[in-house]
Inverse folding.
């Protein structure tokens, strides 16, 4: 690939790659393929997505798909950008902290529509049009902070790492809870039986304080954990802005 040539997957996401065609114009489009793959993933999970399954759903041959997408890996990249859609417009006149909170909640809402999104490997920076729109939205909130552009990118990338990490962990824990809710509900009791205060003194102090005794709604606990961690991160950003901005 020449230095001025776009990577193939990026060119596909931006619809900048011409698909070579011979004969009549095919009825199948890249948008059809992506929409079908997303529908399969929404209904059955990411593992169910294959070029053959997508082709079957569309009533086409698998080879017809390869005229548009060269591999399943490319399809996953395009799917993940299409599924997250564009962010909601940022409310007018919000300060940076309110804006980033709004942004993080928006990411959470968008990914919850497609839980499989959290299983797509992260293989590079946000290069698709929708992911780039989210990136631009978060950077824009920091416009009046006085931070240099490099620092703004660092703040946003750190927030992306937190939000996506929390979402991925929450989905994994939700699956574990569905399989074995008792393991979560009896966690405090389990620790009381196995945690020796001479070996795990900090854990035992937490258990004795009753932190794990009150088990609420799994979803509500996840929401509370997400918000708590988010505000801690933004506290750090506020201190950073005061020091650097």
């Amino acid at each position: 690939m020449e230095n001025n040539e776009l990577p193939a997957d990026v060119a596909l996401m931006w619809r900048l790659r011409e698909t070579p065609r011979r004969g009549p114009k095919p009825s199948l489009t890249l948008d059809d393929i992506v929409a079908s793959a997303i529908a399969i993933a929404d209904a059955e999970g990411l593992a169910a997505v294959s070029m053959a399954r997508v082709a079957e759903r569309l009533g086409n041959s698998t080879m017809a798909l390869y005229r548009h997408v060269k591999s399943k890996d490319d399809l996953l990249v395009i799917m993940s950008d299409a599924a997250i859609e564009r962010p909601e417009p940022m409310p007018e006149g919000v300060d940076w902290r309110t804006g980033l909170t709004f942004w993080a909640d928006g990411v959470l809402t968008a990914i919850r529509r497609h839980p499989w999104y959290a299983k797509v490997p992260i293989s590079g920076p946000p290069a698709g049009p929708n992911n780039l729109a989210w990136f631009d939205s978060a950077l824009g909130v920091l416009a009046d902070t006085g931070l240099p552009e490099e620092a703004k990118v660092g703040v946003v990338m750190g927030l992306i790492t937190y939000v996506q990490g929390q979402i991925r962990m929450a989905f994994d824990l939700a699956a574990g809870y569905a399989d074995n809710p008792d393991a979560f509900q009896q966690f405090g009791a389990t620790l009381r039986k196995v945690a020796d205060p001479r070996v795990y003194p900090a854990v035992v102090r937490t258990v004795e304080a009753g932190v794990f005794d009150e088990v609420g709604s799994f979803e509500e606990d996840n929401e509370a954990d997400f918000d708590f961690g988010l505000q801690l991160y933004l506290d750090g950003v506020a201190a950073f802005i005061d020091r650097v901005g």
Q: What stands out?
A: The chain has a mean pLDDT of 90. The chain is about 65% helix and 0% strand.
